[in-house]
Structures are given as C-alpha cells and as structure tokens.
Amino acid sequence: MTGTGTLPLPALPLPARTAHRFAEVDGVRVFYRESLPERADAPVLLLLHGFPTASYQFRRLIDALGGHYRLIAPDCPGSGRTVAPDGFTYSFERLAEIVEGFTERLGLTRFAMYLFDFGAPVGFRLALRHPERITGLIVQNGNAYEEGLSDAARAFTALTPGAPGAEEAVRDLLSPQSLRAQYEAGTAGPELIAPEGPLLDQHFLDLPGRREAQRALFYDYRTNVAAYPSWQAWLREHQPPTLITWGTGDPFILVPGARAYLRDLPAAELHLFDTGHFALEDHLPEIAPLISAFLTRCAAAH
Questions:
Q1: Which of 12, 259, 273, 292 sits in a 20 to 30 Å window from 250, CA-based?
Q2: Which residues, at least 6 apart from 168, have a Cβ–Cβ distance to it below 8 Å?
Q3: Largest Cα–Cα distance of the chain, in whole Å?
Q4: Tens of pLDDT, residues 3-61
Q5: From the candidates 49, 68, 277, 283, which is the catalytic residue?
Q6: How far apart are CA 33 and CA 58, in angstroms?
Q7: Full-prediction pTM beyond 0.90?
Q8: How, if at all, do strands 28-35 and 70-74 pair?
Q9: Where are the beta strands (DSSP E) in the chain?
C-alpha cells in the first residue's frame, strides 16, 4: 500500500478485439471470428473446432492471444452460425473443401492450424492439399492414429446407416446428457467448465437440418480412419513444427493417440493435462502460453 492508502494498479493484459463476419464460399455462408491484432503481419492461426461445438469454443483463447496473433475460427457447415444450402453433402471431404475455399477467400497463404476432434480430419485434408501453406500444427485431442481410438470410439467409427442399433447410438450422442458429458467427462475440475457451452451446442443442434448434418458426419467418420496412413505419411515427409496438448481423461480419444505422433514427429512438443475433451475450458491459463511461444517460434522459423 502506498502512503496515500491506495494500491498501485497492476498492468493488465487487454483482451483482443474480435470481429464477427461471414464469407461466401461455394454457396455456403461461412460465419467466422477473427481477432484484430496490433500488427498487420501477425502470425496466423486457423482454429478448427470439433463436435458438438463451433467457433465459440475458442472465444477465450481468442481473447487471450488475439492481440498478438491473427486467430481465425470458422464455423464448419452443419455447426454454429454457418448456413449451408439445401442439398449440401455433409462429409469430411466436403467440409475440407469449404475450409480450403474459406482460407483462399480470406487470402491466407501461410498459417498454423489448431486441430481438435472433428477439426483434425478437416485440417489434415487441407494440409495434404497445400503443404506449402502450413507453418505448424497445434494438435489438441485430434486423432490421426488407431491407438488413439477408445473402444467407444471404435464402435462409433463402425456405425453404418441402417445397421441394428445405429440410429439409437446416434440419438444418444446428440442427447443433452451426451452433449454435457462431452465437456465434463474426464475433467478434474468440473466447476471450471462454463455451463453455457452445452446449452449453445443444444441450441444449434435444434436448428432445422442440423441433426441430420451431424448424423451424416458420424457415418462418414470411418473415412478418416481409412485416411490415417496418408496423414501419417504427410507428417513424416514434411515434419511440420508441432505442439501437442492433450486431455488425458478424454473417453473417446486416448493418450496413446497423443504419444503416437512422436513416432512420426520426434521433435514435437507434448503436454498432457488432467482434463477431458475440451482442455481449453479448464486449462486455458496453462495452454495459452504454450501456444503463444509456439506461434512465435514458428514465425521466427519462416
């Protein structure tokens, strides 16, 4: 305390300014969040969300880092505020095509990618098409190896339309209880999980056509498992700088899947956290500095 009885004000980091926009890509109105960093040439990080959420899962990360880096988070078709036309084909290949067109619409020629859950197969497809654009990978519970699949995940990837019990399994995955469990399962501090996440997920899932879109992606997930060898070959060939952050309590995507990356990327940086699927929800203070340091190193290397 000073002599006047007042405390000195601490230097507070200011949250980033974030723009909320739409981009037209091949008939899809893609909603996205984009931070407005202080420098026009700030390193770019493309944030690819997972199931059952959308770009809002990254809002606190954007607040934390967006003043120094250009963080861009689109809602993939079938999620969030993005609007796809009637007859849109919901497959991971088609999602990758839209994200590819989105990056070109924004003029992104060099960027790192944050690969999480459903965002990982989208990002790997984009990397295979344009390896020259990728400055680095941040992988958070995004699988590319069969040993990362739990028994529940293996059962999920085996689902086929019309098979006995398949529709019941899909309905269970889209239930409010399952959505909430995606956030809470495996975390050591459930009180740190913001309750509005599952509520937002439920709101968007209740929009017309959204459950059908997610059902189609569930059935298409087997194409990702079949593509694992090609993604691994890409990693071995290109050796992208890689930061791996992983929730060890994720009931679907297991820790062996995180360690498996080190076979193909021996220089990758691996950090395990005592949490579940949505590691940023309760471990942002630990993960954000790792991402910041990683992006700075990637920028220096390029």
A1: 292
A2: none
A3: 77
A4: 556 777 777 778 999 999 999 999 999 999 999 999 999 999 999 999 999 999 999 99
A5: 277
A6: 9
A7: yes
A8: antiparallel
A9: 18-25, 28-35, 44-48, 70-74, 111-116, 134-140, 242-247, 269-273
